[in-house]
Design brief:
The strands form 2 sheets. The chain has a two-stranded antiparallel sheet. The chain starts with a strand and ends with a helix. The protein folds into 3 domains: about 1-105, no CATH class; about 105-165; about 175-289, no CATH class. It has helices spanning about 20-30, 40-45, 50-70, 75-85, 85-105, 105-135, 140-165, 175-190, 200-205, 210-220, 235-245, 250-265, 270-289; strands at about 1-5, 10, 230, 235. The longest helix is centred in the middle third of the chain and has 28 residues, at about 105-135. The protein is mainly α and about 290 residues long. Strand 1 (about 1-5) and strand 2 (about 10) form a beta hairpin.
Length: about 290
């Protein structure tokens, strides 16, 4: 149902007449609307239909940004002004499209798309060149030459950005996962490993970039680590034993070290001999890693 005001036409789903196809009306209004406003409440945040509607509106905005930026060549600043949307939001949408295009293109696909786009631009340049040859107006001639130069720049700029965002997919060998899981199985004796601290710990242990660490954690979870999470802490020893990364002998060895380490920490006042024993246990744990 559309409620008319002096300035705009407002769609409110609660005013849809009984007997109408509710979802079709909502979907059509989402598709046709120029402005989408969400009134957030605690229940709205948890609502699956509202999340779906927000997603549809976001995809619609991104599609329009794609059309204006890639097909018509408008800058993010210009698009922001035209759509009356925050500049940061438009910049994020433009980055999203460059990254999406970069990730989806294989080398041959990139080559094919470049050829296709170049052909399109060459046709535009041919038409402009024909006009240029018959042009008698100096000002118009200069404008046409400027358009040709802009088309050439757009061609180069567009595909340079796409290629910058195209990276070969990273992979992690299970041998690397095995070695990491063994290290974590031993280190958790000293400090239980929180799920929230795992990323930082993996970066430190592997001396890798955040993307590589995230990939390793993703692999760990795919191999079953998520099944050994309790109260926010991972049990790497049980996970490693399940995957066969630890032998029965090694698993028992770590269990014994855990018992010894806990025993050392149980005394309120550590004697000198106990401190030395604890130091030896820590040394054994680090040697295992």
């Amino acid at each position: 149902m559309n409620k008319h005001t002096p300035y705009c036409e407002v769609f409110i789903d609660q005013l849809i007449p009984k007997g109408e196809k509710w979802q079709e009306q909502i979907d059509k209004s989402l598709k046709d609307c120029h402005i989408f406003i969400v009134f957030l409440t605690n229940s709205a945040i948890q609502s699956i239909p509202i999340k779906k509607e927000v997603k549809i509106a976001k995809e619609k905005r991104r599609d329009e940004v794609y059309r204006l930026h890639f097909e018509l060549g408008y800058s993010a600043r210009k698009i922001s002004e035209m759509m009356k949307v925050n500049r940061n939001t438009i910049n994020a949408d433009v980055r999203f499209w460059y990254e999406t295009l970069g990730k989806s293109f294989e080398k041959n696909e990139i080559k094919g798309c470049i050829i296709k786009q170049l052909t399109r631009y060459e046709n535009q340049i041919s038409r402009l060149t024909e006009k240029l040859e018959s042009c008698q107006d100096l000002e118009l001639e200069l404008n046409i030459e400027k358009l040709i130069a802009e088309i050439n720049n757009k061609t180069s700029s567009l595909y340079l950005k796409i290629l910058e965002n195209h990276t070969e997919p990273q992979t992690v060998e299970e041998n690397e996962i095995s070695q990491l899981a063994r290290k974590l199985s031993a280190l958790q004796i000293i400090n239980p490993i929180k799920e929230s601290e795992l990323l930082t710990l993996v970066i430190k242990l592997q001396r890798c970039k955040i993307q590589q660490a995230e990939l390793m954690i993703e692999n760990l979870n795919q191999f079953g680590l998520s099944q050994f999470l309790q109260s926010g802490y991972h049990n790497f020893k049980e996970f490693s034993a399940m995957r066969g990364y630890l032998s029965d002998k090694e698993s028992k060895y770590l269990d014994d070290l855990l018992v010894q380490y806990v025993s050392c920490n149980s005394d309120c006042i550590l004697e000198k001999s106990m401190i030395q024993e604890k130091s030896n246990i820590v040394k054994k744990i680090r040697e295992f890693t």
